[in-house]
Amino acid sequence: MNLINLPKTLTPIASIIAILIFCADVSGQDDLLSELQQSKKPEKEYTSASFKGTRVVNGHSIETKRSGELEFIISHRFGRINSGAYNLWGLDDAFIRIGLEYGVTDKLGIGVGRSSFNKIFDGYLKYKVLQQSSGPGSFPFTLTAFVSTNIQTVPKADTDPSIDFADRVTGNYQLLVARKINPQLTIQISPTLVHINTVDGSVADNDQFALGISGRQKITKSVSLNAEYFLRLNRHENTPYYNSLGLGIDIETGGHVFQLIFSNSQGVIERTLVTETAGQFFDGDIHFGFNITRTFQLKK
Amino acid sequence: MRIILILFFTTVSLNVTGQKYNLDVSLVSFYSYSVIEDISAENSESLGLIDLSTNRVAFIVPIIKFKFKKKLMQEHFNEKYMESELYPQATFQGTMVGFDSDALGKQDVSASGKLTIHGISQDVSLTGGIQNISDQIVNLSSEFKVKLEDYEIEIPQLLWQNIAEEIEVKVEFTFKLVK
After folding, report:
1. Are A15 and B4 a contacting pair at CB < 8 A?
2. B70 touches chain A (CB under 8 A)
3. Which of A156, A74, A164, A81 shows the shortest CA–CA distance to A115?
4. C-beta of residue B173 within 8 angstroms of C-beta of residue B48
5. Could B64 and A45 be called an inter-chain contact, meaning their C-beta atoms sit closer than 8 Å?
6. Homologous superfamily assigned to A47-297
7. What is the interface pTM, i.e. ipTM, of the complex?
8. pTM score, two decimals?
9. How many domains, in total, are found in chain B?
10. Which residues of B touch A220 (CB under 8 A)?
């Protein structure tokens, strides 16, 4: 009987422990639910719904559309609020971007759009490289890589034949890093590179780096307040442009997200947003605008 | 003393086996009928235990494992209605009445106990059918209604017409004897 080899003095203690285990088991028998809870293995869960939309304010969020989802997005930006009653506080001068984004997989999104501001066509790819998760093997943030290209079609080729196609092209590269800190609050940082093929060297560089800082705070289940700032890291000393600041309110109803926006930027794509923001927010050069999105499930 | 110890451990292990059946195959589904669109979802990742010596039954339904046809709907279900990050599971624990574990064939039973959804517990009595398929396998099925208000599941105003205030839940469980 050397099954359990304990020093003699410990044996009474061991039997007390055994009795305790036994008692615990008897009560556990009555409580099936806690027995179940104990048998449950913790699982890794991916964090979802860090942002309501694919845009925080003007710039992209880490969110992509899921496989088979198509998003139709209309971004409308009015003129400056401080342009006076004659312009109906900016409502007379509106720019619009019409775009589509499709989820090829749950991680890979592809999008196209056309902005009336400088008549720019854009196309982009978004890929969720890493996903925030909880449970075993958890990961603290989501990383989405974003690449886009813009083709500015102003001025028309006929009117200025000296401009080559290459002069019209811009490439934008972003790493979107976000952490959903709690169900209400998400913070994102977005290191950004905008490469403009052809610039006026006296006021701008070809490669412009910026750091986007943005976040959202939900105030109800369907409404959140958003903010976004792009800090240009190597701004040209003679630049006539300002850093972009945007404030927004997201309202979500079923398949729609409405985003009401106040920003000193009138463009909504990275080039115009990060490097060509002409307004000074605190002087009142604020553009009111909205994004309206509708998501369609095309494939199951 | 060692013999007593061994006796204790033997009793403990007898307790564990006993008459307990573990949930093997599960399907929990719900339907919500409305004018605009019917909403439905299925979940096959529940956990459950049934003890035929005491007629007690318990199950856990992980909310995040409900699968919808529309993924956006699934996200809204978790984020806005069920608040799954705060309340990751729905649970039931109760005692079955009217079950004769020796009889064969399908029997009507009711189980009264606590249903917890969205962090709110309510005393309920669920009715359903139970069947001894063999001495190893027990089938349990139930259909019941969940009133969203009872569990403080709020529907945002703008969406009220999209979601019924009462949800029909269907449960189909196959339990296997724990060896």
Report:
1. yes
2. yes
3. A74
4. yes
5. yes
6. monomeric porin ompg (2.40.160.40)
7. 0.80
8. 0.83
9. 1
10. 156
